[in-house]
Structures are given as structure tokens and as C-alpha cells.
Design a protein that fits this description.
The complex is a heterodimer of chains A (585) and B (444). Chain A is of the alpha+beta class. Chain A contains 14 helices and 30 strands. Classes of the chains: A alpha+beta (585), B mainly alpha (444). Chain B: InterPro entries: DnaJ_domain, DnaJ_domain_CS, J_dom_sf, RAC_head, RAC_head_sf, ZUO1-like_ZHD, Zuotin/DnaJC2, Zuotin_N.
Chain lengths: 585, 444
């Protein structure tokens, strides 16, 4: 089969589509079957395929096999290259490439020099002629890797994959996107669309059959191998708008590996005082790194994990174990960094943690239970935290993005390339988002006016929302007062009465030593605990309408329709009745 | 999205509230922020559809509903029924192996292309028509023969394995290779194309490259033949097995039959492979494109060769020309040298002659001066004078002789001649060429 089939503009009916997550550390491929996304396992049985290519004796290896060659053949192994796509040599961060092929500057283009062809050998295997190492641009490396990835998908599906949706970080610029599309095209794939990684993760959750469309604020924390990206996404009627993002290169999976590497290296030196530090030797370091990663993964699943490397340094084998508690203690500073990162993004979006309805943990590092636990401490209990350790129905965080991409691919595969282009054009995607909520005023049991939100802030217009609101118990004429609304955070200080109580009890318990600790503890807690709630504040009035003669126990339907020009049409009527009141402003 | 129900009640209408049509617009929305939607998800697609076609929510709802409704209708219409052959209705269900399952279900138009959905629908339709209960209602009790045929056909076609076995031997779906007569009328690509399209159904690998047409590139054609000469077929011939007796009475017999069947399958598979190969050989033999590509390749090769030969010829010619030019130049140089030699020889002779002549002038001059004596000169005087002249001549070179001859020429008076000689002798003596006293007669 020819590889050179023109890909751009494959006819919609001939397409075989997949979703690809092309990560800096790992990549995934997924397809959809009966509207459900499935992640594809490659020939080695991996669903997370390391983004690594390795060349040994002219053979190309990729994924887990290539990763193993980081120990024995680091010079001809290319890893962590995704982020270099479409960038100048000046602006790349080559930190992670220290243990593999180093990036080089070839006329400003990031390139790697690897020996990807075998030496010419005679029948006895004697080298006749050495073949010089070739210099591959990062573009070529990405093309080769994507070709392997898509090849695995084609093998799995039994059909040649023609098109794909690929996820990209939110901070990928146009040049990087172009470079990625060019690399994919060169690998023989039509790129239907590039979608943002956080949105792919949200889509993966929202596309579950049990999910309902609702207005919510979602924080997507993608904790990857070499970088962490956090985004605040407003999901309004199933449409997604990114409100804020943050990118961090310090708190990521490799930082956790590093902690474990240091821990075990020290333990090794303690046991073998005469041996050389395994961190000083490149090969030992590579072994250490591979095993540390495996141990980290094991600690995400079990409470204990073993660590064993043969011939770690000076030919000495090393085996040890670690429990999760110890790991969480030594990795504490890194683990807490994730919390600060998430908090900072929520703040950047101009929101409070109370505004967040859902937190999605995505990416391989999200398997770490402590990260989810830490996050659950900063968010209120009403926030759904979708991580495997806190929520049994959570989707595997490593697979979220690929699933989202596959779902999007299946949604748009029937459209022509021109159609997709037009629909993703800025003229369609750039729309007004209302700043304040629109709602009506109700009266609660205490007789206070309360705001009932109908259209939430940051909703893209045009938008239409309908609510059914109870009428007064007695029925009769009701007033529908449409107002703007806003939230603020109400902080309730613990009442001084409580303090008195505590001090009283403290004095009582002065004599009683047994209970002292306990009372101190409760004292602290009471003092720290402020009660914070989200409260709707009624803003300016937009319109008033009257519904007359509502039946006893009846309900009133209010539909608010905001147009693209910000004009609003309010339609109200009694549920089940004809007619109703309609007005425009 | 689902409508939310809120239990907190609305306030009652205050006394005296009144407005036109019960609606009182008061404020406007505050300014909105421009943000970029993420073009992802089904709801965005709906948004894009509305935005691009400038539809409102209710218009879009209506159009979508219409489209959905239309689709259902299409589904109903797409069920194509074909007339039932009365011979087919008479079939015995026991003879199911020779029955055309697609035809029984009314899908002979689709055959291997029929989807599972189509088969299910066709089955249901046939069942509704041919159910024995319906026959019984029409007065024909126990007429379930064709119904059994339908059930058998569905059983085979809905089981992927059995369906493949049946499709493998479904001759109705085969397209016969074109005869020479047909090919003579043209349509080569269309006729062979349909043959390979039908053969492609056995391919394990999809998509199968198409036969293409006259305009296909060399790569496409090569790709096509490569694919087909390495064709990976799932075609198998279990369907044609002879029945294996499944009673336990005769195990040997059973084994024998099984072996026989396996061999027959193998043989048929080999035959099928050979058939396909022959098909390809026939096709490629008549394929104008291959000939054309070969010619083009040859032409390209020939062109290269001709170019090389032309280059060689030119080089040879150039070399010959250069050699010739060199020879010519050498010859010319030689001739010139010869001429030069001749000229110098001539000049030398001329000079010699001139010297001779001048010497004669010198001698003549002394003779004209009568050897510087009055009256007849004695032989000794003449000898002495001529000896001196000889001496002078020997001491001076040709130019000086010529100069001296020029001075002497035309002089007739003896004193003047003598003066010239005297001056010459003095000059020579001054130059140290002649010792004083050596010349006597001229200097006297």
C-alpha cells in the first residue's frame, strides 16, 4: 500500500478517524465504537505509548521498547521532542533531553543527530563501511513517530487510518500548530482539527451517556510527565470557553521521579559506602530513572512498592521497598506545588474555589492519590473531584484526552474539510459572553428575596435557557422580575459565643489533663474555620412581567433568550397553560 | 438542556402593578465580554450550524426535527423488494446448501455488500409475508417450506463466519473477466475495473487499490499490481464440503471424509489463487499503461544513452579538432621558423655581399686615389696599401665597413680619400684595435 496517498481532503465517506494525544512524554490513540471512545493498545499492549523513538542497528523502535533503550543506547534515542515542534532553537528548554539524543541547532531548526541506518556489514557481521549518523529535524522525528502511532492504530482497526483529531496544549501558538499539522500530513494523516487538551478531557466526561448537560465551571488539571497545565473552563449548555490557563514546568511527573531517585540513590550509598554514586554515571542514572518511574506508578496503585535495579552502580545490585506514606512525605513539597498551581489558576480566572463545580484530573501524574486528596482539601465538598482515587466512576486520567479527541473526530468526520474550517473560524468561535447572570427574584421561606439564576455568567450568546419556578402556594397573580445577578463570597467568622464556650470548657478542663489535647485541638479548629459561602446578589432589574391567575400549586415557566446582539427576549407562562407573556428588551 | 425546576416560589403580584400586555421592560444587559469558544463537542456544532445559517434556536430545532423525521422515512423507503421467483418458493429447505441466501431474502442486488441491518430488515419483511401461520390462515396448512429457507438464509448471513464461507463460493457476485471480443470494443479499464472490484471483497486488507484508468500514474499502477500479486484473501471453501456423517458408527469413515474435505479445500484454494494469478497475467498483458510506462522508461533510458553517446561523440570531435589545431599551429610555427631561417640566411648573404661590395669600395677607393702616390704606383706600394686595407677591414666589422664605404663612396679626390682612411686608422688606433705603426701605407 502506498504511503504517499494524498491525505489533505480525504472524502468524508472514505475516512477512518482516530483521536490522537501527542504528548511530550506519552501519546495515546483512541477510536470510537457506537459513540463510545476506546483507547487503542499498540503492539506492545500499551495504551500510554512513550513519545520516544530509538534506532538500533538501523531498526526503528518506538514507545516502551524505545524507552528501554534509554539505558543502553541513549545517543540514538530521541525523547521529549513534542514541545520543540515549530520552535526556534533559541526558545527551547532541553533539560529533559539530557539523558537522550541532544537537540542541536541546525540553522535555527531544532534537530537531533542519530544513527538511523545500519552499518554495511559482510556475512560475518564485520563492519565494512560505517554509515554516518544522520541529522533529523524535529519535524522529521515527529513525522516518523506519528507514522508509527497511526500504523499501530491502522493495525488494530484493520483499516488504514486516514484522518485524526489531535490534542494540543492551550499555549501552542499558530506556528507550533502549523508544524504539527505539517508533521502529521507528512506522516500521511489528514488533521481534521486540533483541539485543546483540557477541553478534550471535559468532552470525554460530558460524552458519557449518564452525563447531563449543565452549566458548570470546570477546572482541568493536566498533570503530565514534563509539564502541568491547568485550565478553568466554563461549560455552558455544552459549549466550552476557557477562562484562564496556567502552565508549569516544575511540578510534573519527572519531579516526583526525581524525589524517588534521590531517595533510593541515598539509600544505595548508605548500604554500599564504597560504591560510586549512581547519579554520577549516565547509565546508572538512566536505570535509576526508569525504575523510579515504575515505582511511582506502583505506589499510585498499592500502598507498598519495590524498587530493584540490577547492577545499579559498580556492578552492585540494589533492591528496596518504599511505602506510600514515606513517598508522600519525601515528595511533599512537589505534591503541594500542584495545589498552589490549581489555586492560582482559579484566582487568575477571577473566581473562587466555591465557584468551581467540577475538577477533572487528567494526565498520568493524576494517578497519584495524594494529589487528588490535597485538591479535595481546597475545594468545597460540593465540588465533584474526578480522579480515580476519589471517584470510583472516574475515567482513567491518562486516557481522557485521547478519548475526547476520538469523540470529536467521530463528531466531525462526516464534514468536509472546508466545512470544518468555516465552523472553527474566528467569526463563529468568537462570541459575546454575558458578564452577569440573568435570573428572576423569588421569595424564600424566610421571606427574603433570593436570586434564581437562569442564565449563568460567562454564557456564550446566543443562548436560551428555561426554568420552571414554583408559584406561591395559594396561586393567584405572580410577579416575574427579571434581574441581573452576581455572586460574592460571604465569609462568616465564627461567632464569639463559640469562643466563650471553648474558653469555658478549657477552664473546666484545666484540672482534667486527659482531655486537654482534645480541647486544644477543637479550639484551633474553631478559630481557623471560617464559613465561606457563595451568595447570589441581586443586581439591576431588567424587566417585570405578570402572570395572572396561576392555579394552586402551579408552576411558572420562564424562558430567557439572549441574542447575539445582547437583546433579550423573556417568555413566561404558566406550565401547561396557553398564551403567556412575552417581551423584548 | 433539561429544564431546571426550582421549588422556591415567585413573589405574588403587588397591588396596583400594571403594564401594557403585563410586561414592563426596565433595564438593559451590562456589556458582555468577547471570548473564544472552544470548537469542540456536539453543542458547539449546533452553535456553529446556527451561526453559519443564521438560524434562531427555534428555527434550528424545527429544521433538525424535520431532518430527523425525513431520515426515518428514508429508511422505510430504502427497503427494496424484489419479485419472488416461483421456482424459488418451491425450494426444499433441506437442500439449503445450494440455495442463494441473498435471493431468498430479496437482497440479490446487494449480496456481499448487504449490511447486517439490511439483512435483519429483509428477514423481518420476509417473515411477515411467509410465516406458516399466515399460510394457514390462507388455507394452506403445514406449508412452512419456504419459511424454513428464509430462516436458514438468515442463520447463514447473520453469522459472520458462515456468511464468509457462503460469500466465498457465491458465484452470483463474481464478475467474469472480459472476453477478447468485449475488450475489442474498448472499455478496457471499466471492464477489468469491475472484475477487480468484485475480487476485492475477499481482501483481508482494506482499502484495496482501484484499477484506475488511462490517466493513472505509474506509481498507482505499480501499486495496484503489487497489491494484487500479493493478494491476501480470506476466501475459503468449507461451504462446498461434503457432509461428514456425524453418527458415531464409523469413525474411520468420518475421518476419511474430513481428510478428503480438507484436501478438497486446499486444492480449491490453490486453484483460486492460480485463477487470480491468471486473471492478473491476462489483465497486465493487455494493459496499455504498462506498455506505455515501459516505453517511457525505455525512452528515458534510450534518451540517456543517446545523450551519453552524443556527449562522447562531441568530446571525440572536440579532441580531434584540438589536435588538428595544435598540429596546424606546430606546422605554422615550423614554417615560420624555416622562413625566418631563410630570411636570416638571405640577410647574412646580403650582408656578406654588402661587405664584399664595401670591401671592394674600400679597395676601389685606394685604387681611385692611386694608392696615394703620384704617377704609376709600384707593385710594392699597391701591396702595402692593399695590405693595410685588408688589415683595417679585418679589424672592423661589417657595419663599420659599410660606414666607411659610405664615407668613401663617391670620393674621387685622392686627398679626401686618404683623409677618410687616415681618420679611420686614427680612430682604430684610438680604440686600441690597431697598434700604432702597424698601418703605414694608409697613414703616410
Amino acid at each position: 500500500m502506498s504511503e504517499s496517498v494524498a491525505q489533505a481532503g480525504t472524502a468524508p465517506e472514505d475516512r477512518t478517524v482516530i483521536g490522537i494525544t501527542f504528548g511530550n512524554s506519552n501519546s495515546s490513540i483512541a477510536f470510537t465504537v457506537d459513540d463510545k471512545a476506546e483507547v487503542i493498545a499498540n503492539e506492545d499492549g500499551d495504551r500510554q505509548i512513550p513519545t520516544i523513538l530509538s534506532y538500533v542497528d538501523g531498526d526503528e523502535y518506538y514507545g516502551q521498547q524505545a524507552k528501554a533503550f534509554l539505558v543502553r543506547n541513549p545517543k540514538n534515542t530521541v525523547a521529549y521532542f513534542r514541545d520543540f515542534l515549530g520552535k526556534d532553537f533559541k526558545s527551547i528548554d532541553p533539560t529533559h533531553n539530557h539523558a537522550s539524543a541532544h537537540p542541536q541547532d541546525v540553522d535555527g531548526v531544532v534537530s537531533f543527530t542519530v544513527k538511523d541506518k545500519d552499518d554495511k556489514k559482510d556475512e560475518e557481521g564485520e563492519v565494512i563501511e560505517e554509515v554516518a549518523a544522520s541529522t533529523l529535524s524535529v519535524h522529521e522525528v515527529a513525522t516518523r513517530y506519528l507514522r508509527r502511532l497511526v500504523g499501530s492504530a491502522s493495525d488494530y482497526l484493520g483499516k488504514k487510518v486516514t484522518s485524526a483529531v489531535i490534542t494540543v496544549p492551550t499555549n501552542f501558538n499558530d506556528k507550533q500548530k502549523e508544524a504539527l499539522i505539517a508533521a502529521a500530513n507528512a506522516a500521511g494523516i489528514e488533521v481534521l482539527q486540533l483541539i485543546s487538551e483540557p477541553v478534550a478531557a471535559v468532552l470525554a466526561y460530558d460524552a458519557r451517556p449518564e452525563a447531563e448537560v449543565e452549566d458548570k465551571i470546570v477546572v482541568v488539571a493536566e498533570l503530565g510527565g514534563t509539564r502541568s497545565d491547568v485550565a478553568v473552563v466554563a461549560s455552558r449548555g455544552g459549549m466550552y470557553t476557557i477562562l484562564a490557563t496556567a502552565h508549569d514546568y516544575e511540578f510534573a511527573g519527572v519531579a516526583l521521579d526525581k524525589v524517588l531517585m534521590d531517595h533510593f540513590a541515598k539509600e544505595f550509598l548508605k548500604r554500599n559506602s564504597s560504591a560510586a554514586d549512581p547519579r554520577e554515571n549516565a547509565k546508572s542514572l538512566a536505570k535509576l530513572r526508569l525504575e523510579a518511574e515504575a515505582t511511582k506508578k506502583a505506589l499510585s496503585i498499592g500502598a507498598n512498592a519495590s524498587f530493584s535495579v540490577e547492577s545499579l552502580s559498580d556492578g552492585i545490585d540494589f533492591a528496596s521497598t518504599i511505602n506510600r506514606l514515606r513517598y508522600e512525605t519525601i515528595a511533599r513539597s512537589v505534591l503541594e506545588g500542584f495545589n498552589r498551581l490549581v489555586e492560582s489558576v482559579v484566582k487568575k480566572a477571577g473566581l473562587d474555589v466555591l465557584d468551581v463545580d467540577e475538577v477533572i484530573l487528567s494526565g498520568g501524574t493524576s494517578h497519584t492519590p495524594r494529589i487528588a486528596q490535597n485538591l479535595s482539601n481546597i475545594f468545597p465538598s460540593s465540588t465533584r473531584l474526578l480522579a480515580p482515587s476519589t471517584n470510583p466512576s472516574a475515567i482513567n486520567p491518562s486516557e481522557l484526552q485521547a478519548r475526547g479527541a476520538a469523540l470529536q473526530a467521530s463528531l466531525i468526520q462526516e464534514y468536509d474539510a472546508a466545512d470544518i474550517d468555516q465552523s472553527t473560524h474566528a467569526a463563529v468561535t468568537t462570541v459575546s459572553h454575558i458578564a452577569n447572570a440573568i435570573g428572576v427574584v423569588s421569595v424564600n421561606e424566610a421571606g427574603e428575596e433570593t436570586f434564581i439564576p437562569i442564565v449563568y455568567p460567562e454564557t456564550a450568546v446566543p443562548a436560551r435557557r428555561t426554568v420552571h419556578i414554583a408559584a406561591p402556594k395559594a396561586g393567584g397573580d405572580v410577579l416575574v422580575k427579571v434581574v441581573e445577578g452576581n455572586t460574592h463570597i460571604k465569609v462568616t467568622k465564627p461567632e464569639p459565643k463559640v469562643k466563650e464556650e471553648v474558653s469555658k470548657s478549657a477552664t473546666v478542663e484545666d484540672a482534667d489533663d486527659e482531655n486537654e489535647d482534645d480541647s486544644d485541638f477543637s479550639d484551633d479548629e474553631e478559630e481557623e474555620e471560617e464559613k465561606r459561602e457563595k451568595v447570589w446578589k441581586i443586581g439591576s432589574t431588567l424587566a417585570e412581567a405578570a402572570i395572572r391567575g396561576v392555579k394552586k400549586g402551579g408552576k411558572v415557566e420562564v424562558t430567557v433568550n439572549v441574542h447575539a446582539d445582547l437583546s433579550v427576549i423573556v417568555t413566561t407562562r404558566e406550565v401547561g397553560a396557553k398564551g403567556g407573556v412575552r417581551g423584548q428588551l | 438542556m433539561a429544564t431546571t425546576v426550582i421549588p422556591i416560589p415567585l413573589p405574588a403580584l403587588p397591588e396596583g402593578w400594571a403594564a401594557e400586555k403585563d410586561f414592563k421592560p426596565i433595564g438593559k444587559l451590562t456589556e458582555a465580554t468577547q471570548r473564544t469558544l472552544e470548537p469542540v463537542g456536539p453543542h458547539f456544532l449546533a452553535h456553529a450550524r446556527r451561526a453559519r445559517h443564521k438560524r434562531t434556536f427555534s428555527e434550528d430545532d424545527r429544521i433538525q426535527a424535520q431532518e430527523r423525521a425525513k431520515k426515518v422515512e428514508d429508511d422505510n423507503e430504502s427497503e427494496i423488494s424484489e419479485p419472488e421467483d416461483s421456482m424459488m418458493l418451491q425450494r426444499d429447505a433441506k437442500d439449503w446448501k445450494s440455495q442463494d441466501h441473498y435471493k431468498v431474502l430479496g437482497l440479490s442486488k446487494y449480496r456481499w455488500k448487504a449490511t447486517e441491518e439490511q439483512i435483519k430488515k429483509a428477514h423481518r419483511k420476509k417473515v411477515l409475508k411467509h410465516h406458516p401461520d399466515k399460510k394457514a390462515a390462507a388455507g394452506r396448512v403445514d406449508d412452512d417450506n419456504f419459511f424454513k429457507c428464509i430462516q436458514k438464509a438468515t442463520e447463514v448471513l447473520l453469522d459472520p463466519t458462515k456468511r464468509r464461507q457462503f460469500d466465498s463460493v457465491d458465484e452470483e457476485a463474481d464478475v467474469e473477466p472480459p472476453t477478447k471480443k468485449q475488450l475489442a470494443k474498448g472499455n478496457f479499464y471499466k471492464l477489468w475495473g469491475s472484475v477487480f472490484k468484485s475480487e476485492a471483497r475477499f481482501s483481508k486488507v482494506h482499502p484495496v487499490p482501484t484499477f484506475g484508468d488511462d490517466k493513472s500514474t505509474k506509481e498507482e499502477v505499480e501499486n495496484f499490481y503489487n497489491f494484487w500479486y500479493n493478494f491476501d484473501s480470506w476466501r475459503s471453501f468449507e461451504y462446498l464440503d461434503e457432509d461428514v456423517p456425524d453418527d458415531n458408527e464409523n469413525r474411520d469413515q468420518k475421518r476419511h471424509m474430513e481428510r478428503k474435505n480438507a484436501n478438497a479445500r486446499k486444492k480449491k484454494k490453490a486453484e483460486d489463487n492460480a485463477r487470480l494469478r491468471k486473471l492478473l497475467d491476462d489483465c497486465s498483458a493487455g494493459d496499455e499503461r504498462i506498455k506505455r510506462f515501459r516505453q517511457e522508461a525505455n525512452a528515458a533510458k534510450n534518451k540517456k544513452r543517446l545523450e551519453r553517446e552524443a556527449a562522447e561523440k562531441k568530446a571525440a570531435e572536440d579532441a580531434a579538432a584540438a589536435k588538428e589545431a595544435a598540429e596546424k599551429a606546430a606546422k605554422e610555427a615550423e614554417e615560420k621558423a624555416k622562413q625566418d631561417r631563410d630570411a636570416s640566411k638571405k640577410a647574412k648573404e646580403a650582408a656578406k655581399n654588402a661587405v664584399k661590395k664595401n670591401k671592394r669600395v674600400l679597395r676601389g677607393s685606394v685604387k681611385d686615389a692611386n694608392y696615394f702616390v703620384e704617377g704609376d704606383a709600384s707593385a710594392s706600394v699597391i701591396d702595402a696599401v692593399l695590405g693595410d686595407v685588408e688589415l683595417v677591414q679585418a679589424k672592423i666589422d661589417a657595419d663599420e665597413i659599410a660606414e666607411l664605404a659610405g664615407k668613401l663612396n663617391g670620393l674621387k679626390v685622392a686627398d679626401e680619400i686618404k683623409g677618410v682612411w687616415k681618420a679611420e686608422v686614427e680612430r682604430l688606433v684610438g680604440a686600441g684595435k690597431i697598434k700604432e705603426g702597424e698601418i703605414k701605407a694608409l697613414n703616410a
